[in-house]
Amino acid sequence: MNVSQSGSLPVRIEQDVVLARQFARKLAAEQGMRLVDLTKLVTAVSELARNTVVYGGGGDMDWAVVEQPGRVGLRLLFRDEGPGIADTRLALTDGWTSGGGLGLGLTGARRLVDEFDLDTAPGEGTRITITRWI
Q1: pTM to 2 decimals?
Q2: 121 phi and psi, to 5 degrees?
Q3: Are 29 and 87 in contact (CB under 8 A)?
Q4: At what angle do helices 35-54 and 105-112 cross, to 10 degrees?
Q5: What is the 3 state secondary structure string of 4-39?
Q6: In whole angstroms, what is the distance from residue 63 CA to residue 27 CA?
Q7: Nearest CA to 20 among 54, 43, 36?
Q8: Residue 104, phi then psi, degrees to nearest 5
Q9: CATH superfamily to which 2-133 belongs
Q10: DSSP-derived pairing of the beta strands 115-120 and 71-80
Q11: Listed residue (45, 41, 65, 42) closest to 53, CA to CA
Q12: Model confidence over 108-122: pLDDT tens digits?
């Protein structure tokens, strides 16, 4: 897999969630992503960036335009140094929430992208990598 462009954005305050969403939308559009797929990606970015701020205490969104033979995609890594997720199985169950939300953040984001990887442990922060292929 080749990376043709990459970078990082801070996701530390609520305004950064908006900026991450706008950046992902622009990047996806520049790569020629269809509107329905772009909307799914931006929705996942919004959920994961918000989780990074609210539950992780802030962090970063690393991004890359990735290429494989015959296709291009966007890979985004949301990382924080927060408390981590104690029970990932439970956290990835529809309807479960650790806060006052609807419990659709992680599971909803997972359904909206082509690849989803969660790496977390209590006291070690959280790293969620998503990829959406064009």
Answers
A1: 0.90
A2: -160, 150
A3: no
A4: 150
A5: EEEEEEEECCHHHHHHHHHHHHHHHHHCCCCHHHHH
A6: 10
A7: 43
A8: -115, 0
A9: Histidine kinase-like ATPase, C-terminal domain (3.30.565.10)
A10: unpaired
A11: 45
A12: 899 999 999 999 988
Distance of CA 80 to the CA centre of its chain: 12
Residue 121 structure tokens: 């442990």
Query: Using CA atoms, how far apart are residues 62 and 33, in angstroms rounded to an integer?
Result: 19
Do 61 and 49 form a contact (C-beta atoms < 8 A)?
yes
- Per-residue tokens: 97: 């929430």
Alpha-carbon gap, residue 114 to 134, rounded angstroms:
10
**Which one-letter amino acid corresponds to residue 32?**
G
Domain spans in the chain, listed from the N-terminal domain onward: 2-133
What's the pLDDT at 89? Answer: 79
1, two tokens: 């897999």
Q: 102: pLDDT confidence band, cut at 50, 70 and 90?
A: very low
d(CA 69, CA 91) in angstroms, rounded, equals: 34
pLDDT at 103 over 80: no
CA angle 107, 24, 49 (to 5 degrees): 45
Spatial CA neighbour of 57 closest among 1, 10, 110, 4:
10
